[in-house]
Design goal:
heterodimer, A: about 180 residues, alpha/beta, Rossmann fold, three-stranded antiparallel sheet, globular, B: about 300 residues, five-stranded parallel sheet, four-stranded parallel sheet, 11 helices
């Protein structure tokens, strides 16, 4: 039987983003030198939300940028040519800053590997951390997240669908059977 | 997209995608590390049967910024000088594992022939008097960057249209993207089948948003296309006086290399209204976008 169940509702997503914002502040002792870098597509609105929460909590404005990792993927040759999204460096660049990469789902780890390669071409951060809304397991590379919204045990055949209001009109995370 | 042979093969969405990706590539060219790993392990052959400085170097820079391996093959001092046919050269390149061949050839249609003989992608870098699609794309990119749009603009292409592959490709592409194109030059050098034609430069420049000057191709001037260079220059050259009669926002383009003093005066070429240097810079970004779209996916 095909199924599609909600694992995070819109209120859950809000709470999770609030918590990650607090954790970033706590772990970086006030986030003074932190810049947020959202990985396209859905990491981008997430990074903006985190910045907005941190502004609310601590009255602190963090630079936010976007990173499109298409040109750094290791599976380009396996699929038809992909569209390239925007990369925007945060104001002030990333040199000597603590970069927090933000993405929606952590899965194989290959996206983050590509993002790390892209980062090293953009500059030299003093440290790089990773924040994800959902960690669904099945890593293929030695990569872990510093901030995890929710760990969701999944089967490889299942799909985690993240919807965010800025892009999809609604906040929710669903776990779906293979199409 | 498998090959890039003609600007006429691109519809508006495809052309716009190339320009959008080129804009991302331009950001890379502005960084300290001007390099992407995207085409690592791919081989691009520059096969040039005609002299060219900027196009060859531009393609070479584009391929290298995407981490492709580049082999430069110029007809002079190669097996071509010993009489090897294009087909045999094609097979040689094939045997060397070329993923893409960038070809410039004096014969119109040579890239189309080559596309049937090699397994990889073929990019037309100028064939005879036929087409030069990447030049048209970089011109479109430059217009969009300066004017904010292409749709609805009036572009005058001035000079030796007859021998110009740049004019032909620009005509096709700019019309696809919604511009109005007028071809201007002496009757002997403007073919009427390409569309709207005028022999009166002063009339056209009054309401042109973009004036694209073409090089007078002395090497192809075997017949008497115009009486003297002086007369040509007086009627169809762009000088300071004509520049001042153009609308205030209008820009001046030239694909290079220029004959300073012939079709364009130094005063105009070096003015802030001229995009000539930007065109060269944008050429690398646009060619990176083309190489990515041809080689960046599953082959």
């Amino acid at each position: 039987m095909p199924y599609s169940k909600i694992v995070l509702t819109d209120a859950d997503v809000q709470r999770v983003v609030d918590r990650i914002a607090h954790q970033i502040l706590e772990k970086t002792h006030g986030a003074q030198d932190v810049v947020l870098l959202g990985i396209a597509t859905r990491g981008v609105p997430l990074s903006r939300r985190l910045a907005e929460r941190i502004r609310t909590f601590e009255n602190l404005s963090l630079p936010v940028g976007t990173l499109d990792i298409t040109l750094y993927r290791d599976d380009l040759r396996q699929k038809a040519v992909r569209a390239v999204g925007r990369t925007e460096e945060p104001a002030g660049g990333i040199d000597q800053r603590r970069v927090v990469l933000v993405d929606d789902v952590l899965f194989s780890g290959r996206t983050i590997r590509a993002a790390l390669d892209a980062l090293s071409d953009l500059g030299r951060p003093s440290a790089v951390q990773l924040a994800v809304l959902v960690d669904r397991g099945h890593r293929q590379l030695p990569i872990r997240a510093d901030y995890v919204g929710k760990n969701i045990p999944t089967a490889l055949s299942e799909q985690v669908k993240v919807r965010l209001a800025e892009i999809d009109g609604v906040d929710e995370v669903r776990l779906e059977s293979a199409a | 997209m498998k090959h890039l042979l003609s600007a006429g093969d691109l519809d508006a969405p495809a052309a716009t995608e190339i320009l959008d990706i080129a804009a991302e590539m331009a950001a890379v060219s502005g960084r300290e590390i001007k390099k992407l790993p995207t085409l690592r392990g791919r081989t691009v052959v520059n096969l040039f049967y005609e002299d060219s400085t900027r196009t060859r170097i531009s393609f070479e820079a584009a391929a290298k910024r995407l981490s492709a391996d580049v082999i430069n093959f110029s007809a002079k001092g190669s097996s071509v000088a010993k009489g090897e046919s294009l087909k045999d050269t094609a097979w040689t390149l094939q045997a060397m594992g070329a993923d893409a061949v960038v070809i410039r050839h004096p014969a119109s249609g040579a890239p189309h022939r080559l596309a049937n003989w090699v397994a990889g992608s073929v990019l037309n870098a100028g064939d005879g008097t036929h087409e030069h699609p990447t030049q048209a794309l970089l011109d479109a990119y430059t217009i969009r960057a300066r004017m904010g749009r292409i749709d609805g603009l009036h572009v005058a292409i001035v000079g030796d249209v007859l021998h110009s592959r740049v004019a032909r490709s620009n005509c096709l592409l700019l019309r696809t993207l919604g511009a109005k194109v007028t071809l201007v030059g002496p009757p002997t050098l403007v073919p009427v089948e390409l569309g709207e034609v005028s022999y009166d430069f002063d009339e056209v420049l009054k309401d042109a948003d973009v004036v694209m000057m073409l090089r007078v191709q002395r090497e192809r001037m075997n017949d008497s296309y115009f009486p003297t260079e002086r007369e040509y220059s007086r009627r169809y050259g762009l000088d300071g006086a004509r520049l001042r009669r153009m609308p205030g926002h209008a820009i001046v383009m030239h694909p290079g290399p220029m004959n300073r003093g012939m079709e364009i005066t130094p005063e105009v070429a070096d003015s802030p209204r001229s995009t000539i240097v930007e065109q060269v810079t944008n050429g690398v970004s646009v060619r990176m976008a083309c190489l990515y779209l041809l080689l960046g996916g599953k082959s």
